[in-house]
Task: structure prediction
Amino acid sequence: MTFQMFLFYFFATIQVFAGLRMISVRNPVHAALFLVLSFVCAASLWILMEAEFLGLLIVLVYVGAVLVLFLFVVMMLDINIAQIREGFARYLPIAAVAALVMVVQMIWVLNDKVFKASAPPPALPEYNNTEALGEVLYTQYVLQFEIAAVILLVAIIAAIALTLRKRPTTKYQNPGEQIKVKRNDRVRLVQMKAEKNEVEPE
Amino acid sequence: MSDLVPVIPEIFILTMTCVLLLVDLFIKEDQRDIVYWFSLAILASAFLLTYQGQPSERELVFGASFVRDSLSDILKLFVYVVSAGVFIYARDYLKLKGMYKGEFFLLGLFAVLGMMLMISSASFLTLYLGLELLALSLYAMVALEYHSARASEAAMKYFVLGAVASGILLYGMSIMYGLTGTLNIYEIQARLLEAGDAGRTGVAFAMVFILVGVAFKLGAVPFHMWVPDVYDGAPTAVTNFIGSAPKIAAFAMVVRLVIEGMGSLHEQWLQIFLVLAVLSLLIGNVLAIPQTNIKRMLAYSTIAHIGFIVLGVLVGTADGYSAALFYTLVYALMSMGGFGVLLMLRREGQEIELINDLKGLNDRHPWLAFMMMLLMISMIGIPGTVGFVAKLWVLEALIHEGFISLAVFAVVMSVIGAYYYLRVIKTLYFDKPDSELVMTSNWDSRLLVSANGLAMLVLGLFPGLLVPLCVAAFAG
Result:
């Protein structure tokens, strides 16, 4: 076993473990943190495959931005975990059987020397991952790139359409009105007779 | 530059939808009709662009990831027609529900773009991205009625199950990529033919995952659980959209992935499609019988119709594929009309939910009841309507290839299915109305429902109007 193989199995094991914990822990904050761990391992695997740029991107974008946002949301929402986990025990046996059957079948099929391809030759020293990606992204895959952009646009429209709503009860400040305000609008002078505070004799 | 010519309809729709997005920002609440007419104009212009630019032979552009052929053109033309029909039926319903906003039409147009890309995809990547564009728009459209708990629940279910199915599909695609070393559907076809029987196990393994994803998007049993809940929970105008045009796109997905990409594996996917078809016919028809909610009933009937479409595909001949294509197009029109009639009516100010809500429609609005009857008997497949031609063609293709017992089973299931459609007709005609039933629609949807209902009759009497197009689509 080469050192590369060792690294692969090391990160892959941690990733599978993190993935399993992510869906099984009770606390959503912990789940999000396990997702971070899983992404970091995925990034390491990609770097092992000489996809350095994508590996770094996954750390920057997913771990750095998306998951932090995700953690914010999880912490702000008051999620009733007990209610979500209702039915988990009920469906566990049947789900476990189905998953087991699938895993056994997959191992059986994939053991059959399906992927016979040998490892690709290592890249030349002057090979630049980022440059290679940039070259195909805006030429060969320009159509797909544009569709991905449209998907993001739809996501923005959908998010706004679903969350932006007018609340008639919300109170706003109108700066124009505030500036135009006169002293007389706010303060009223009242003439009152002096009153005597009569203390009742005990 | 020549790369862009086959993509003109897509570019047009995208550009104009973005223009509409800006227009929608600057108009007042009571001018929303502008958005409605604008979106219809976009679809009509796209129709003309696609119709005029029909290529004489298959064109592959963008690194062979986008294909334009006669099949893609006929599918796209129907997507425009059906989507425009859905918009027209939806207008008055949305107004009454207080959902008459630009987003419905915008998301609808983006969904149309996604469907067009799915129809024209020649690469796994284009297909997957088109599918996600369509799905994302649909999830949002289901949830548009945000104050309704039922719509939110339906959207959540649709979203979670849709994401799982996309994941499974993507997994299958990645294995197929690992085995063949290409994402291009036509190259995969060539590699699989070249490999012959060698390495079949791995390919079959990838195929199973791809088929699961496809079956989910079609709504075939046993991947149908989302269909009744989403149809029922979504606002009816959105149900109408989900039930019609995306079925055309799902059929395109079957053609591109299964028939074109994995055509040489017919022996393998035949088995899977057999199970899908038999179960869909059985469960769809039997479970539709006890439904009292008409949206749920139509949802189960969709599953049964999908069974018929899968039957046409599994035959594995050009004749069978053409029959399945014809069935899909006709089904999209029938489904659009069926839900359209529900959208046009209100019972005591409430929208139509139950079959009993349609009681005595004939006494109030005889013409509308007649149109609904035409649509229902077309769904049954009674001679004289187009539903009969569609069913007949699929059965003929089946018998021609020796699937006799399957054809008999399909006929028996259709007879069982006739029961619940006839019950609707009975409710329309023989039950006495017991409360106020008002037609709330404008002239545009009244005109459309007449055209929609009569089309069932016209296409049924003169199937020659559509049949040659379906044959030509698979002649190449």
User: Anything to note?
Assistant: Residues 172 and 209 of chain B are 5 Å apart (CA to CA). Chain B touches chain A through 35 residues (CB under 8 Å). The first strand of chain B starts at residue 59 and ends at 61. Residues 5-473 of chain B form one domain.
